[in-house]
């Protein structure tokens, strides 16, 4: 291959995550609403009959479909479907940092304002209930943080004889932080807590 061919193939290329096709991709929306003259964060409780994470607290969102123009459109579509609102009621949409999960998913979070929250009609097929937490609670309350440790276990036929130090190879251990917020009788944790923690970090910066 000629060098000019390589240059042509790489020119104006936008890099993406290597191996992204092996990940499931999701988009979620952190909804802000005005309630009692202050900003609140809206959460969902997943319906108990769902196969995946029934009863857990989350933000509106779901898997990015091939028909979605981009991750933002997917987050908006899922929010409209789950909360039973008009697309026009979702405004001031901004991306947060995306998350590459060790469990084979990429999550694209967004924050947005939802107007006329009294018009919401949550989809009972997906949402057991909705509730809100004052934004000030998260600004004033540090989460509890716990660690999940991952263990490296090469498969039985792994070619240790081909690598330096063989079976004594020094694998790098990895851990994941899990954040927990407790509000009244609700436990907010996992990716939902991680996203709200990231959002609070952003807005609390000088």
Automatic annotation (TrEMBL):
Pfam families in the cross-refs: NUDIX
InterPro entries attached here?
A: CoAse (IPR045121), NUDIX_hydrolase-like_dom_sf (IPR015797), NUDIX_hydrolase_dom (IPR000086)
Residue ranges of domain Nudix hydrolase in the record: 23-157
What protein name applies here?
8-oxo-dGTP pyrophosphatase MutT (NUDIX family)
Keywords from the named record = Hydrolase, Magnesium, Manganese, Metal-binding
Query: What is the scientific name of the source organism?
Result: [Anoxybacillus] calidus
Q: Which PROSITE patterns match?
A: NUDIX
Obligatory cofactor(s):
Mg(2+); Mn(2+)
Q: What is the lineage of its organism?
A: Bacteria, Bacillati, Bacillota, Bacilli, Bacillales
């Amino acid at each position: 291959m000629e060098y000019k061919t390589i240059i042509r193939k790489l020119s104006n290329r936008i890099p993406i995550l290597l191996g992204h096709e092996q990940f499931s991709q999701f988009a979620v929306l952190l909804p802000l609403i005005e309630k009692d003259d202050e900003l609140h964060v809206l959460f969902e409780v997943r319906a108990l009959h769902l196969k995946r994470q029934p009863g857990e607290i989350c933000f509106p969102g779901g898997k990015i479909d091939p028909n979605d123009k981009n991750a933002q459109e997917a987050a908006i579509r899922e929010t409209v479907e789950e909360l039973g609102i008009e697309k026009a009621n979702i405004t001031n949409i901004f991306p947060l940092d995306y998350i590459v999960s060790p469990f084979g998913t990429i999550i694209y979070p967004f924050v947005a304002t939802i107007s006329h929250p009294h018009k919401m009609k949550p989809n009972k097929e997906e949402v057991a209930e909705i509730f809100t937490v004052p934004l000030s609670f998260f600004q004033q309350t540090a989460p509890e943080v716990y660690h999940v440790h991952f263990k490296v276990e090469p498969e039985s036929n792994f070619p240790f004889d081909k690598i330096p130090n063989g079976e004594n190879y020094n694998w790098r251990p990895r851990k994941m932080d899990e954040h927990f917020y407790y509000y009244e009788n609700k436990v907010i944790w996992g990716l939902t807590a991680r996203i709200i923690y990231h959002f609070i970090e952003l807005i609390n910066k000088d």
